[in-house]
């Protein structure tokens, strides 16, 4: 149950960062049709939606991999689940005060959370892969 609420909070962080990106894009003066960059203003929301969808997919994959790790290496699962819980708790504190902060501070904090989440998911993937390789090595003996 803790994992589901963690996913919700982390999804809010990712969504919030893309909302900031969207507001930055809307502040940029793009004209309908092609401009010097070749970007069409109407493409921006679709691109952000694609990025948001990709991040949701990555977060889902990360939580599934964490659950899979539980069956292979309980110690690593506990370690990463604790990290996820701590990241969730600190992000809740941030979300509680986020609206009163400047956009520059929000960008820095969001980058920090995104990095921590990416690093955690990489570590989960690495540990899961290593545990699976080790298991296959034990199962296949010459």
Task: Write the SSE topology.
Elements: H1 2-27, H2 43-72, H3 74-97, H4 103-139
Helix pairs in contact: 1-2, 1-3, 1-4, 2-3, 2-4, 3-4
Question: Would you write up a description of this structure?
Answer:
- With 142 residues, this protein is mainly alpha-helical.
- It has one domain.
- Helices cover 82% and strands 0% of the residues.
- The chain contains four helices and no strands.
- The protein has helices spanning 2-27, 43-72, 74-97, 103-139.
- Helix 1 (2-27) packs antiparallel against helix 2 (43-72).
- The longest helix has 37 residues, at 103-139.
Sum up the overall morphology in one term.
elongated
Strand portion, in percent? under 5%
The percent range for helix content is: over 70%
Weakly predicted, low-confidence segments: 20-44
Largest sheet: none
Could you state the order of secondary-structure elements as H and E? HHHH
Question: Number of helical runs?
Answer: 4
Mind telling me the C-alpha Rg?
Answer: 19 Å
Distance between the termini: 42 Å
Q: Please, what is the average pLDDT?
A: 75
Number of strands: 0
Number of domains: 1
Structural class: mainly alpha
């Amino acid at each position: 149950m803790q994992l589901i609420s963690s996913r919700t909070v982390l999804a809010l962080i990712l969504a919030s960062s893309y909302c900031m990106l969207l507001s930055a894009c809307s502040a940029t003066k793009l004209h309908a049709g092609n401009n010097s960059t070749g970007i069409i203003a109407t493409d921006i929301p679709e691109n952000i939606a694609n990025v948001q969808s990709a991040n949701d997919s990555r977060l889902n994959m990360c939580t599934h991999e964490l659950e899979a790790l539980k069956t292979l290496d309980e110690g690593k699962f506990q370690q990463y689940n604790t990290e996820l819980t701590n990241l969730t708790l600190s992000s809740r504190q941030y979300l509680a005060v986020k609206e009163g902060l400047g956009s520059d501070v929000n960008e820095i904090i969001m980058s920090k959370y995104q990095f921590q989440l990416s690093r955690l998911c990489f570590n989960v993937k690495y540990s899961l892969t290593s545990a699976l390789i080790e298991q296959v090595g034990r199962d296949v003996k010459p």
